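// run 5 | inverse folding | seed 20
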């Protein structure tokens, strides 16, 4: 059975790539830190590098690749579908590390994720059909001057070629020929347009036979295409902990509009108690938030579901995101220890909270919506967990996640 290593810059990205393999019957887990390294067919590692400067992000990925999980593992480098973080520096360092170990490597790059509205056309990322640069996501958080992916990669010293959409669709075998041409030319990366899942499937089928010579770089869309091109696996399901008869903890640590809309829709459905947490309160420290932390934990212990959300702060400094996530996680630790299940949106938020609960990995089970995985927390506080990237998902996503956690717990109670 082909093993896979997925390297990601945040937890939700690692999970939404690996869950595609779990859906196909392969044992898949997302882990962080040495204690979380598991013997799975598909292991996704959260490098936690989204907020790091380029040199530090690159060094972290190179270090993780210096000790791969056994020979012959295929490598998938997860990049954010809207180019957040430092994907170019991370990829350049990954290619250099692989080549230093004697492994030729062409990066097949496509961050398209059509199920969430992300596409690639003319080598540029588009969101819901419009240029990424015109979106609120780009205005709120971007690293590069624009969304021209070839220019982004070349800015990190890589040579690139482009497989345009028209060429990809022109005839069967076009993708395979483009990959071989890029390999023969000694290119570092082949940037591939893709606007549909069928486009990504064509790329996956063309490149899988070249696993010894290429690595894949993309979001959950290309990962799903690769998983779909593999034979079905037959991994036994993991053992499940007995359910707790307490409430759920739902956490929104992302400032993205999609997550805010979904939180409001979930609250409108009723039965969910809201706890708004101001950034000033989180910065004030434990002495100021003890009462709030106790109220959230008491709500959950009484069997009610609680939604904790960081309030918006005009002019907020995005560089404070990691510090706020850590403070939020510390505040919510008592609630997390009491909860029967957890939903978290925002990669830094999810990782910080799970670390507070002593969790070192998540064994992935299913995908409740595109890019929204359900899994079992491993180590520490074992419970069902759903994670979601902050920037995508529909208005019903959080409400649906809550319903799925409730249904999962009910099924376990009746088993």
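// decoded
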């Amino acid at each position: 059975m082909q093993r896979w290593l997925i390297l990601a810059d945040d937890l939700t990205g690692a999970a939404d790539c690996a869950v595609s393999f779990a859906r196909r019957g392969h044992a898949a887990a997302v882990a962080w830190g040495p204690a979380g390294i598991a013997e799975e067919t598909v292991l996704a590692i959260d490098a936690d590098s989204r907020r790091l400067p380029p040199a530090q992000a690159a060094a972290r990925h190179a270090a993780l690749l210096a000790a791969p999980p056994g020979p012959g593992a295929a490598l998938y480098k997860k990049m954010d579908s809207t180019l957040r973080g430092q994907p170019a520096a991370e990829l350049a360092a990954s290619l250099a590390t692989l080549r230093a170990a004697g492994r030729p490597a062409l990066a097949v790059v496509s961050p398209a994720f059509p199920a969430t509205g992300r596409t690639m056309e003319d080598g540029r990322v588009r969101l819901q059909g419009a240029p990424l640069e015109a979106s609120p996501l780009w205005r709120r958080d971007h690293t590069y001057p624009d969304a021209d992916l070839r220019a982004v990669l070349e800015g990190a010293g890589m040579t690139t070629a482009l497989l345009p959409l028209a060429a990809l669709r022109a005839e069967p075998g076009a993708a395979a020929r483009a990959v071989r041409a890029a390999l023969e030319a000694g290119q570092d990366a082949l940037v591939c347009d893709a606007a549909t899942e069928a486009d990504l499937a064509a790329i996956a089928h063309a490149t899988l036979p070249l696993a010894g010579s290429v690595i894949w770089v993309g979001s959950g869309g290309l990962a799903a295409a690769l998983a779909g091109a593999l034979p079905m696996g037959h991994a036994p399901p993991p053992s499940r902990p007995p359910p707790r008869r307490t409430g759920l903890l739902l956490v929104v640590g992302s400032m993205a509009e999609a997550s805010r809309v979904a939180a409001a829709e979930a609250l409108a459905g009723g039965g969910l108690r809201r706890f708004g947490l101001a950034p000033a309160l989180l910065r004030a420290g434990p002495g100021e938030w003890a009462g709030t932390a106790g109220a959230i934990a008491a709500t959950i212990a009484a069997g009610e579901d609680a939604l904790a959300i960081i309030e918006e702060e005009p002019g907020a400094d995005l560089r404070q995101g990691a510090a706020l996530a850590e403070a939020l996680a510390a505040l919510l630790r008592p609630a997390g220890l009491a909860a029967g299940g957890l939903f978290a949106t925002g990669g830094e938020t999810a990782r910080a909270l799970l670390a507070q609960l002593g969790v070192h990995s998540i064994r992935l089970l299913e995908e409740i919506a595109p890019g929204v995985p359900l899994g079992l927390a491993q180590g520490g506080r074992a419970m069902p967990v759903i994670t979601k990237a902050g920037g995508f998902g529909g208005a019903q996503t959080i409400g649906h996640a809550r319903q799925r956690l409730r249904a999962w717990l009910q099924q376990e109670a009746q088993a």
